[in-house]
C-alpha cells in the first residue's frame, strides 16, 4: 500500500486488494521464477535461496489479500488477529509465532509483531 499511497493510486478497498493480488501473483508466478532460473544458471546459491524464499513469501501475501477480498465480497470484516513478520525473509504469519519460520527456518525470535 505504501507504493500506492506515494503514487496517489489509492482507490476502493476492492480495487486496492485486486491490485495487490495482481502484483503478488506476478511476482511469484513470473518475476521470481525468472530470477531463480538466472541464479541457478549463475550458480549463485545465496541469490537462489533469497529468490526461492521470496517466491514462498509472495504466495503467503497473495493468500492473505485473497482472504481479505473474499471477506469483503461477503460484506464481512476479517477478525482482528496478531500479525508477525519474519525479519529474515519477510514471511507473514497470523495469530502466533511458529517455533521456526516455515519459509527460511530461523527460530521464533526472528519474528516481530506488526503494531497497529
What can you see in these coordinates?
- This protein has 116 residues and is mainly alpha-helical.
- The protein has helices at 2-7, 13-41, 45-73; strands spanning 83-86, 92-94, 111-113.
- It has 2 domains: 1-77, Ferritin; 79-116, Rubrerythrin, domain 2 (Single Sheet), CATH 2.20.28.
- It has 3 helices and 3 strands.
- It has a 3-stranded antiparallel β-sheet with strand order 2-1-3.
- Helix 2 runs antiparallel to helix 3.
- It is globular, with a radius of gyration of 16 Å.
- The two termini are 15 Å apart.
- The model has no long low-confidence stretch (mean pLDDT 93).
Task: Compile the SSE list and pairings.
Blueprint: H1 2-7, H2 13-41, H3 45-73, E1 83-86, E2 92-94, E3 111-113
Antiparallel strand pairs: 1-2, 1-3
Helix pairs in contact: 2-3
Amino acid at each position: 500500500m505504501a507504493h500506492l499511497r506515494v503514487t496517489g493510486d489509492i482507490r476502493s478497498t476492492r480495487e486496492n486488494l485486486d491490485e495487490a493480488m495482481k502484483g503478488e501473483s506476478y511476482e511469484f508466478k513470473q518475476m521470481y521464477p525468472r530470477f531463480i532460473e538466472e541464479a541457478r544458471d549463475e550458480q549463485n546459491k545465496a541469490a537462489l535461496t533469497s529468490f526461492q524464499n521470496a517466491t514462498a513469501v509472495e504466495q503467503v501475501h497473495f493468500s492473505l489479500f485473497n482472504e481479505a477480498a473474499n471477506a469483503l465480497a461477503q460484506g464481512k470484516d476479517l477478525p482482528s488477529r496478531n500479525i508477525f513478520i519474519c525479519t529474515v525473509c519477510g514471511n507473514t504469519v497470523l495469530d502466533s509465532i511458529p517455533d521456526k519460520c516455515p519459509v527460511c527456518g530461523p527460530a521464533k525470535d526472528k519474528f516481530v509483531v506488526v503494531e497497529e
